[in-house]
Amino acid sequence: MTRTTAPTPTRVRTAIFPVAGLGTRFLPATKATPKELLPVLDQPLLQFAIDEARAAGIERMIFVSHPSKDAIERYVRQDDELEETLRAKGKESMADMLQDNALCDGEAQVRFVMQDEPLGLGHAVLCAADGVLPGPVAVILPDDLILGEPGCLSEMIEAYDRETAGHMVATMEVGEAEVSSYGVLAVTGRDGPRILADGMVEKPDPADAPSRQAVVGRYVLDGSIFDDLRGLPAGAGGEIQLTDAIARGVGTVGLCGFRFTGTRFDCGSKQGMLQATIAYAGQHPEFRDTVIDARPDMLAAE
C-alpha cells in the first residue's frame, strides 16, 4: 500500500504580533501605556496592525506580550460592559467603533502568550510556535506603521509563492548611512515587486552591506522557521535574531524581499511617530487644514 503525504499548506492563516517590548524610547509615556497603544492621532498603533491582518484574511492572531502589559489584552478583546455603558449614555457611535475594533471569537481566533524576558524578536516568534495554524505564518511589527491601500500584508500574501521563496520579507531601499540599522538582503535578482536573495546580513557596516534593500517589519515565513529558531545561538545584541533564523533556512526554502506600495513610518522612534501622525492627519479632511495651518507656525518657531 502506498502512503500519500498531505501537501504542505500554502495559505497564510496565522499572524504573530510581537508586543512584549518595553518601549523605553517613549518613557515616561510608556511607563503606564504600552508603546503599541500610543495613538497616531486618534488610533493606537496596534489597531493599524490588527486592521492590516484582518484585511489580509488572517484567521488566528497571536500576541506575544509581557506580563506587565495586560492593557494590550484589555484593548484587543471586546469589552461588553464598557460598550453597554456608552450605549446607556446615548453614545452609540462610540460604542459601535469599539465593537468594530475589538477582536471577537467569531471573527478571528485570538491567542496571548508571554515573553517574560527580552531575548529578541526571534525568541518572541518562537514563543508563538505552539499556537500557529498549519502553513506559512505572518509576522507584523506594530511599530513599523505602513500606510497604504491595499495593506502591506495583503500585497505580500497575494505575491507569496512558496515555490519561488518560502521566506518573504518586506523591504525598502535606504541610504548607505542607514543600512547599519537594518537587516539587509544579499540581492541576486528581481521578479516584479519580488527581490530575490540568497542571504541577509543583520546591521552590516555600510562598507560591507550586500545591498541597500533593508528589511522592515512585515514577514511571511515558511513554517520551518520554528525549527530554525530552536537552538539558535544569540546573535547581534546578545539576542535571538529572527534574521539569523531566516538566513539559516535560505538554502532550503529560499528567500525574497517584497517592495510594498505603501509608506512606512518607524514609530519606534519619536521622529517617525510624529511623521506618521502628520501624514495620517493629512489623509482626513477634518484635520488637513489644521496640519497645513500649523506648518508656518512651526517654521516660525524655529
UniProtKB/TrEMBL annotation:
InterPro entries noted in UniProt: GalU_uridylyltTrfase_bac/arc, NTP_transferase_dom, Nucleotide-diphossugar_trans
GO molecular function terms listed in the Swiss-Prot or TrEMBL record: UTP:glucose-1-phosphate uridylyltransferase activity
Record's protein name: UTP--glucose-1-phosphate uridylyltransferase
- Reactions catalysed according to its record: alpha-D-glucose 1-phosphate + UTP + H(+) = UDP-alpha-D-glucose + diphosphate
Record key words, sorted? Nucleotidyltransferase, Transferase
Q: Which family does it belong to?
A: Belongs to the UDPGP type 2 family.
Q: Residue limits of the Nucleotidyl transferase domain?
A: 20-252
Question: What organism is this sequence from?
Answer: Litorisediminicola beolgyonensis
> Where in the sequence is the signal peptide annotated?
none
> Where would one find coiled-coil regions in this protein?
none
Q: Identify the domain of life.
A: Bacteria
Keyword Transferase appears in the UniProt entry: yes
Cited PANTHER family: UTP--GLUCOSE-1-PHOSPHATE URIDYLYLTRANSFERASE (PTHR43197:SF1)
Q: Does the keyword Nucleotidyltransferase apply?
A: yes
**Listed EC numbers:** 2.7.7.9
